[in-house]
Amino acid sequence: MSAVPGPQGPPSRTHSPTATTAERPDVARALMSSPLPLPTTTRLALLVLVAGAGASFATWWWLVLGRDNWPGAQLACLPSADAAPDEVLARFTGCVNDVRLAQSAVVLCGPLALLALAVLCRAAGRRLSLWRWQAAPDHSSALARRLAAVAPEGAGPRPVLWVRGRGVGIRARASGTVRRPRIVADSYVLSLADRSVDAIFRHELAHLRLRDVGRVRLAMAAGWLLLLGVTLPMVVALAHDPGLLGAGLLVRMAIVLVVVLLTLCAVLRVREHDADLAAAADPRAPQGATAAHIGSALAPRRAERLVRSLGLATHPAPAVRLAVLADPARSWGLSSLECLTTGLAAGLVFTDLTLLVAALMPDCTQLAYIVGGLLTGWVVAGVVTVAWWRAVAVGHRDASGRRAAPAGAALGLGVLLGSQLAGRAAGDWVRDTGTVDGLATALSLTQVPRVQALALGAVLVVGGALFALWSTSLARALGATVNGPRSAPACAAAVGLSGLLLAVPLGSWFLFARLTAARAAPDIRWAVIDTPWWVAGVLTTVVGALIPAATARGSRFARTRGARQPRPLVLLAAATVLVTAGAGWAAFGSDPNQAPATQISGDSPVSAAQTDAPNSTNPTNSPDPTDSPVSGSGDRTVPLDQLPVLPPKEERTDAMRADTALVCRALSLGGTAIWADPQRRADMAELLGGLDDAVLRAASAVLQRDPSGPVDTHALVASVLRCDLYFRYGR
Q1: Contacts with 299 (C-beta within 8 Å, 6 or more apart), sequence order
Q2: Backbone angles phi, psi at 645, to 5 degrees
Q3: Has residue 609 got a pLDDT over 50?
Q4: What are the pLDDT digits (tens) for 1-54?
Q5: 160-164 and 172-176: which strand pairing?
Q6: Pairing outcome for strands 160-164 and 135-138
């Protein structure tokens, strides 16, 4: 029994062995002609995501953290002369934000450089391999005539046969470009039977028709560059000077490299299945020729079986290839392992992506996290939503609730693991490094209470399972098909809607986890979601998610009554508008003047990280921030748990009022109360005005203009940024 997708509807089941055998080429032809992305395409997108995450972190390590001019660039933002308070604040905050934006732009150089080098390596490797193999073009031999007879007419430039003079062992390989395709073959292929030679050439020509040769070679080049140009140099640097973060970074880099390697091997195996199906779908191919050729392969040796068991094989076993040919829809599933890898990639890339967005909108931290959730959600949906849509279209068992829910849970677990495997979760960057830039943040959940870490993980696992059930239910309700209007257009609309659905939950989870890892005060953490606007936006998002499935389910009853059925794209468009409105409501609905906690907790890692430090009751022993060195750096800072707190107002002395560390400590520990309460805000403004610092005095002047009115956001942000620089650099 096999799934046979119809041209416009879901697959039908047939029980006749004779009919099944006859229909297998038709099934393969339908799958290969489908406008839906093939499994190779989605797996490659996943590989690019993981490689880009590794390259971006490496760039941040070498070009931001490893350069001493970034602290100097930030400290140069301090005003050298007094000016109008508003002008001082605008110049200071604008300068610091420009430095952060420059750092984020530098981080982008990593993935771009990896792509450029991979393109150059692929172009050079193509010519180098021909030279190494001593290959030469062959236009007139019997082998060239066999290739010309198998190659289809009118399918683009005809491939040229190149025969290798040495390096026997691969039989044949697709090479070249779309405009100049090549088939590189060993000379001993001439000794094979014509039926086998034709099957080999059809398989390689299928690779060229599917255009996976260049993409896979590019991915392989990127993988080697990630190993040789990123991982090994960082290992050498950390081995020479491990510091406080060396061990954590080494373990994480090893795991990420293994993930990249396993993903690359999975891509290479999947592309073979796609090529087998494309070769079997050739209408000129004899019935069962591809299966007969695969079945004639020798049994794998013990070493090959070991490599396959470790997931490192680049070609699937002949038995697996035959099973896919017998049931072509089998390759259109989505395993829990693939979902786990997708989640890992999303968790790895989210932080660097979001910190870049935050640098572009420094006054809207919560919105930056939602935008980061939107972009990451679209990437995730481009892999898993498309895969579930394909599975539903062919009636694959991976689209059933029993399999989709565990796969979705694996997706959520992967996001959690990816967030903790990211390089920025290797330790407390603010505490353990002296040249840390303004984009550093705490992400590690290993030091938070176990209950909180388990709760955050449970939210992701349950959310992933619900997302999987929603995706598969939506595809079934809208009648996903292999071809037709309910295939690629509806799938693309579902991907767009899926990204919008994930924007608010994913962004809020990462922001909440960041504050939890920084051990921020409970009121600051809950301020992320404890607003009526956020709740209303999330509820709107949930309702928007239910509309397409509910309306499509109602159309089934309308179908039986002969009523007009709604179109899938119209339903998805309506739901997209509603979800976009909900996400925008959650992002923009909160007035910054009414919820200053969002601004405090998001713009500066210090404001969140310092809220849990013990309160010192001995202000006379307050250390000078310039007296405590940080290992591995010329900058000097003071540990956060040694920062004192101002005593009650009646016990303060003039020396305490003039101590920048004391006042900034009071500002950090004050939380939202010092801004929401007019009396405490006036008290803080008075303290800031008594310091010998142009930025803090300007913030004081602005705050004292209207102590009982709305808090001035520029004064709030500037004071937090200035105290951040003081805590990290001691000046």
Answers
A1: none
A2: -125, 140
A3: no
A4: 444 444 444 444 433 333 444 445 677 788 888 888 888 888 888 787 777 777
A5: unpaired
A6: antiparallel
CA separation, residue 73 to residues 102, 110, 694 (Å): 10, 21, 18
Distance CA 262, CA 256 (A): 10
What is the phi-psi region of residue 134: left when phi exceeds 0, alpha when psi lies from -120 to 50, beta otherwise?
left
Paired with 183 in beta bridges are 161, 174
Q: Which two tokens stand for residue 159?
A: 């491939």
Strand order from edge to edge, sheet including 172-176: 135-138, 160-164, 181-186, 172-176
Instruction: Judge residue 667's burial from the number of C-beta atoms within 10 Å of its C-beta, 0-12 exposed, 13-18 middle, 19 or more buried.
Output: buried
pLDDT digit string, tens, across residues 685-717 = 888 888 888 888 888 888 888 777 777 777 888
Residue 254 has phi, psi (to 5 degrees) of -65, -45
Coil vs helix vs strand at 629: strand
Residue 507, judged by CB atoms within 10 A of its CB (0-12, 13-18, 19+), counts as buried
534/302 Cα distance (integer angstroms): 57
Distances (CA, A) of 164 to 129, 161, 652: 10, 10, 86
Task: Give the Cα-Cα-Cα angle 226, 229, 231 (nearest 5 degrees).
Answer: 65
706 Rama sector, left if φ>0, alpha if ψ -120 to 50, beta otherwise = beta
Confidence of residue 253 (pLDDT cuts 50, 70, 90): confident
Q: Are 293 and 200 in contact (CB under 8 A)?
A: yes
Amino acid (one-letter) located at 219: A
What tokens appear for 289 in the block? 């020729």
Per DSSP (E only), the strands in 474-620 are none
Contacts of range 130-137, beta carbons closer than 8 Å, 24 or more positions apart? 130/162, 130/175, 130/184, 132/167, 133/164, 133/165, 133/166, 133/167, 133/184, 134/164, 134/165, 134/166, 134/167, 135/162, 135/163, 135/164, 135/165, 135/184, 136/162, 136/163, 136/165, 137/161, 137/162
Q: Cα 458 vs. chain centroid, distance in angstroms? A: 20
User: Residue 245 is encoded by which pair of tokens?
Assistant: 């973060």
Is the pTM value of this prediction over 0.90?
A: no
Tens-place pLDDT, residues 62-112:
777 666 567 778 788 888 777 888 888 888 888 888 887 887 777 778 888
Q: Average the pLDDT over 621-633 and give the result.
A: 36
pLDDT of residue 414: 92
Provide the CB-side half-sphere exposure for 400 (13 A, CA).
Answer: 5
385 has pLDDT over 90:
yes
Q: Is the pLDDT assigned to residue 246 strictly greater than 60?
A: yes
* CA dist., res. 457 & res. 633, Å (int): 36
List CB contacts of 654: < 8 A, sequence separation 6 or more. Answer: none
